[in-house]
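Lecture 7, part 2: worked example. A protein chain together with protoporphyrin IX containing FE.
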Amino acid sequence: MTLEIFLRYVHFNSIFAIVGSLVSEHLLLKKEVTRAELDRLSKIDAVYGIAALILVSVGLTLWLGSIGKPAIYYTKNWIFLTKVGLFSLVGILSIYPTVFFIKNRNGDPDELVKIPSSIFWMLRLELLLLFVIPLLAGLMARGVGFFG
Ligand code: HEM
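Predicted complex, written out as structure tokens:
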């Protein structure tokens, strides 16, 4: 019981850290930013990355560890599998912005760098998916979508 509550607590806080860092990145992004600003974005993006790793490892533990419910409860639930699939898509969408921030942060800190519009759209799509996933989470936690 205690372990499950603790893992869920960490699961929720890592979601807050992910959404918080993504919203911060989106607010700080402009059509052109300095390399110093890119360095700051890259640091916020690192928080996003670490929080995502924690969320996935805790999520997988809740799933495969049979901590609260047996693993089959999730393995045979198409809504749960869709949830994990959507979060994998969020992960894939996050790669290009991360690489762009790291590749362009070094050099003259005052130099301006153009931000491709695709990066804005990737962040927005990530946020949209992150706002949909909790609906799927609430449904699957109550057994909706179970086909076992
Ligand atoms: C690989 C990624 C993930 C895995 C493996 C995973 C796994 C899980 C598991 C096993 C539970 C426990 C469900 C239960 O109580 O029966 C859970 C709960 C939850 N997850 Fe995730 N999760 C992942 C990503 C996410 C993401 C990205 C979000 C939100 C953006 C999220 C939101 C939630 C919520 C809100 C609950 C609580 C549902 C409820 O009790 O109503 N999860 N997750």
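The CA atoms of residues 16 and 51 lie 9 Å apart. Residues 11, 15, 55-56, 59-60, 62-63, 68-69, 74, 84, 87, 130, 133-134, 137-138, 141 surround protoporphyrin IX containing FE (CB under 6 Å). Keep this in mind for problem set question 3.
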